[in-house]
Amino acid sequence: MPERPEEPRGPERPERRRRTRRTWAGALAAVLTASALTLTGLAGQASAADINNAKNAGYESGLTDWTCSAGSGATVSAPVHGGASALKATPSGQDNARCAQTVAVLPDSTYTLSAWVRGGYAYLGASGTGTTDVSTWTPDSSSWKQLTTRFTTGASTTSVTIYTHGWYAQTAYYADDVSVFGPDGGGGGDPSPTIPSAPAGLKVASTTSSSVSLTWNAVAGATGYQIYRGGTKALAVTGTSATISGLAASTSYSFQVTATNAAGESAKSAAVNGTTTAPPGGGGGTALPKHAVTGYWQNFNNGATVQRISDVPSPYDIIAVAFADATSTPGAVTFNLDSAGLGGYTVDQFKADIKAKQAAGKKVIVSVGGERGTVSVNDATSATNFANSVYSLMQTYGFDGVDIDLENGLNATYMTQALRSLSSKAGASLIITMAPQTIDMQSTSNSYFQTALNIKDILTVVNMQYYNSGSMLGCDGKVYSQGSVDFLTALACIQLQGGLAPSQVGLGLPASPRGAGSGYVSPSVVNNALDCLTKGTNCGSFKPPRTYPDLRGAMTWSTNWDATAGNAWSNAVGPHVHALP
């Protein structure tokens, strides 16, 4: 094997185990150097002589001035961050797709190095500085993200090597708009950009009960756009359209847009107003509350308190019946009430209890998967079978929708097809929830995350399991261990920055220490994490880049283990969720 470089290594996929009825344990090894890792800007005050010293910084002239290892680099027309071209570099098992350029600099000078990246693991660094060489990196991302670091040249340094690279055998990364900003080194860098003009033509393209879609005209020289809702920054995009999600139904909102590039941000556009539609019906004729609590109800007796649906306490807004069973037909599922294990609970009583919960404004859905879940949707036929069988269960038992809890992997293409087919049958009232493990949501390239983004327009909430987990990366690139506020907030941040609306993100925790193999935290820790994400209070060492007041809420495994512990979890977390802003 070749000698690995000195940059921090990307995460290794942990060995997966199933939970005790919902268990897996993993270990994520991540080695981080002390090389000033940061994903936020470090730019200081610029002087009049400061320029971008990188040549062909936007790859508009192909790979001129750049050298990529093992033929790994090429320019592409999409996706691009700015201009008409970007770098696509593809690692192999023996090559990390390093693309480098030698840049002229002045001695004893400070420079800010930055680049926009997306795709697979991406690294940015500078070597030969004459002082301390620097680097920074980010896990893979489905949208453009700016990497930034700073270096100071030595007393006799007149050139440095800047570089990007990916990681061995990982997916391709993209890079664009590289900048080595500082005193003019005399090498003749690209002309510095000017602040773009304010966007024109902002209009509302469409609305739903929880979102407003906007479009506007492109601005010359802009590399991105910021969308403001009511004067507060809500979203950043690189194109000329955006959908603002997580909004309240039947409510009017004001929007403005600015254009951005390396020189700064334009003035705000003229404001437009968009009004969301009325909420859809279904499930007893009521919509979900803005903030909701999900609880899994056990259709079996494993030592936790045996319950009927009618026994589930009122703080639970979504009750996920665990679990549907696989059949001999690929992709198809059925449901078998464990009447004997549940003390003689009959199907008729079960159906009546579901109707009663719906009349009280609750949603009852069927969960597919779990520890023994063997459902496989991996082609068009099984996708059709899945959709048809779930819809049949909805009609038979009155379920409001489905929960995807497949712990043995899923195919994003065909699960997307299955859920869209189900949506076309069930209509706008369909509830779709997901319960991935932490490893499944570390990257937008993972199948679970891909599926969630693919069905974002019909997805209700993703309640990731923050338990039975090894250490994981947060959105800031740091490693966090389960059992803390930081673990909950820094991992939720990945989903929030990765494309899910805040209303589609929930925190999944065990209701008691007996509900999981590891990762139980007290309800006060759950509530602190909710406060941190929605209001910016009660945070640990990790502080989210902004607050997410529309965060959906929390989930627990299970209502039965909650009852075993005297309903301590729902009594504490339920009112707290419902009182969020």
List the domain count as a whole number: 3
Helix content: 10-25%
Give the low-confidence spans. 1-48, 280-285
- The end-to-end span amounts to 54 Å
From the helix content, strand content and strand pairing, which structural class follows? alpha+beta
Average per-residue pLDDT, rounded, comes to 87
Strand content: 25-35%
Number of helices: 8
Q: Major sheet: size, sense and barrel closure?
A: 8 strands, parallel, barrel
Question: Superfamily at the CATH H level of the largest domain?
Answer: Glycosidases
By CATH reckoning, the class of the largest domain would read Alpha Beta
Q: What is the count of β-strands? A: 30
Can you tell me the CATH topology of the largest domain? TIM Barrel
What's the CATH architecture name of the largest domain? Alpha-Beta Barrel
- Rg is 25 Å
Strand order of the largest sheet: 20-21-23-24-25-26-29-30
Shape: elongated
Protein name: chitinase
InterPro entries: CenC_carb-bd (IPR003305), Chitinase_II/V-like_cat (IPR011583), FN3_dom (IPR003961), FN3_sf (IPR036116), Galactose-bd-like_sf (IPR008979), GH (IPR017853), Glyco_hydro18_cat (IPR001223), Glyco_hydro_18_chit_AS (IPR001579)
Organism: Streptomyces sporangiiformans
Domain GH18: 291-581
